[in-house]
Amino acid sequence: MLFGVVRPHRRAVVGGGLLALVGGLAGLLEPLAAKAVVDALGRGGSLWGPIGVLTLVVLGGAVIATTGAYLLERTAESVVRAARERLIGRLLRLRVGEVDRLKPGDLMSRVTSDTTLLRAVAGQGLVDGVNGAVVLLGAIVLMGFMDPVLLGATVAVLVVVAASMALVLPRLARANERAQAAVGDMGSVLERALGAFRTVKASGAEARETAAAGEAAGRAWKHGVERARWEAVSGMSAWLSVQIAFLVVLGVGGARVAAGDMPVSSLIAFLLYLFYLTFPIAQVAEAATAWQAGLAAVRRMREVEVLPLESPEGGVVAGAAASVSLRDVRFGYGDAPVLRGVSLEVPSGGMTAFVGPSGAGKSTVFGLLERFYEAEDGVVAVDGVDVRRWPLAELRGAIGYVEQDAPILAGSLRDNLRYAAPEADDEEIMAVLARTRLDGLVEALPDGLDTRVGHRGTTLSGGQRQRVAIARALLRRPRLLLLDEATSQLDAANEAALKEVVDDLARTTTVLVIAHRLSTVTGADRIVVLEAGEVRAVGSHEELLEVDELYRDLAAVQFAADRNAGV
Ligand SMILES: Nc1ncnc2c1ncn2[C@@H]1O[C@H](COP(=O)(O)OP(=O)(O)OP(=O)(O)O)[C@@H](O)[C@H]1O
């Protein structure tokens, strides 16, 4: 998995690694060049040559080593970027159902925080690990030539230490993974609290949310400390291994020298080699711990990468009003059924209203039409074609969808209106604004269409937000318009105006409206009464008043409420 992340950059890694190596070797030449300068001084000969060589070696070595280090760090950044881009590319293509399940704050931390751990894996970490391992092996081979018995003693010590490292490393990986998971939890808590900022304040929940985020930060700390502990153990065992090997070699070698089995010079050389091993062993141990962190990150990123994606095929195709049909559609978000065999025919054009008690499944029908979710059984068809057969982008391109919460994205009002139709010009925008009775608002705003609307549409009222959402959907020239509770937040005058707009639209487009306020849909071509995931009745307002008891009740409650409110 880890090498898969680095593989596309292997050339830069090898190139950077070689440069770093050459730079290091140049360091070995420096004493020789310095010696040449001193010799030349002693001989009284010309100094230009040796000083030139020394300068070349020092400067050349520095430049080469620096270039190598830069290349490696650059590669590490590229690895991080590639991982981020891959994750970002997937995030917005995830299915709605998957994102329902996951926590956005945690998903974000995987893109922003986990990916940074890859930096240590790629680039310098990788090269240090490989270089350290090569030097280690080379030194061991040379030591073998010098004295196989002492090498045996050394290797025995190293094997014990390697075994203890093998025990430590998985724990290190686990601590890393838990620390990262805690960072993800912290993101989730903060995302939740910032997403409902006013509710948090109105509920006096600042201290509780702060404590919850603090608790996650505490867990991140705890696992971070655990990681530090295992890192200390792994560093210490690397250091200890050399010390123990040193003592063992001194003991065994001393005895062999005393017995006359080996010359003292060999023992000294062997000990020097052993000393020389300290650095590569530390390098390998450090690289191994960095890889554990990288591995934890890759695992968490992988969890996102294996989630199923939507395919973005198709484009917006203009056309006439669409027809809709549902045949015995069954669906549930979890085990509990939400739609229990809904059948419905909506011809092209006209207005169809959905009414029924809260939780009856009205919004769910819209979710299936947009293919945010797929029916478990039965067929949802637009223009007579099963939505599963439609190229997804084409299907969604044909539909204008106004959500219940009508979200506004931070940016200018113009950007918000053009969100679903980026190519719309100001003339089209103004025409749609006039239809949704927003033209007066835009004129009153200091910067007109360029006015910035904040995060979640602050600076706009609830009713304005909803009309902006409707205008946004209309700019797309939908063949099928889905309005979810679109009129619930409008005042009486605006509601009447919007009713006109919707009636007007229904002449050229198929309009489906979910309405709690029956007054807005009494003129609908057909009203579908949904109850507990089933279609109870379909008909006009007058027909339903006569035949359907639930509808009669809904109407009675609604109109009584309106009378009391003086509407
Ligand atoms: N994303 C979701 N995940 C899980 N359950 C959901 C989800 N959305 C809705 N439900 C459940 O499905 C059922 C139907 O919800 P739906 O939103 O379709 O009802 P509705 O008729 O539109 O209600 P309302 O009029 O209150 O908006 C409810 O019981 C709800 O709890």
From TrEMBL:
Protein location: Cell membrane
Protein species of origin: Actinomadura vinacea
Boundaries of every ABC transporter domain copy: 324-557
Signal peptide region: none
TM spans (from-to): 12-29, 49-72, 117-143, 149-169, 237-258, 264-282
Record keywords: ATP-binding, Membrane, Nucleotide-binding, Transmembrane, Transmembrane helix
Keyword Nucleotide-binding found: yes
Name assigned to this protein: ABC transporter ATP-binding protein
GO molecular-function terms, A-Z: ATP binding
Membrane topology of the entry: Multi-pass membrane protein
